[in-house]
Amino acid sequence: MLTDKNFRYQKNLKNRRIATVLLTNPTWRDVLPDVDRVITGIKAATPGSFTEIEIPPLPKQPFTRT
């Protein structure tokens, strides 16, 4: 899944009443280990602000048959 890497440059957020927090990787499996950083970013957000949180992808797990 991809995110819009140019979002911050396409939108004028300065005079908005909303804050934007963009996750570079929205896949829940990858976000879960960094959920504390996401919560911190959301709590620090103020109207008109833009925060990008880098979420690295987790390594692929090898397929194992059970």
Question: What are the salient characteristics of this protein?
Answer:
66 residues; alpha+beta; two-stranded parallel sheet; 12% strand
What does this structure look like?
- The chain has helices at 7-10, 28-31, 35-44, and strands at residues 20-23, 50-53.
- The protein is α+β, with helices and mostly antiparallel strands.
- The chain has one domain (7-53).
- The radius of gyration is 15 Å and the shape is elongated.
- The chain starts with 6 loop residues before the first helix and ends in a 13-residue tail after the last strand.
* Fraction of helical residues: 25-40%
**Low-confidence runs:** none
Q: How many helices?
A: 3
Largest sheet: 2 strands, parallel
List the helices and strands and how they pair.
Layout: H1 7-10, E1 20-23, H2 28-31, H3 35-44, E2 50-53
Parallel strand pairs: 1-2
Structure described in brief:
With 66 residues, the chain is an alpha+beta fold. Helix content is 27%, strand content 12%.
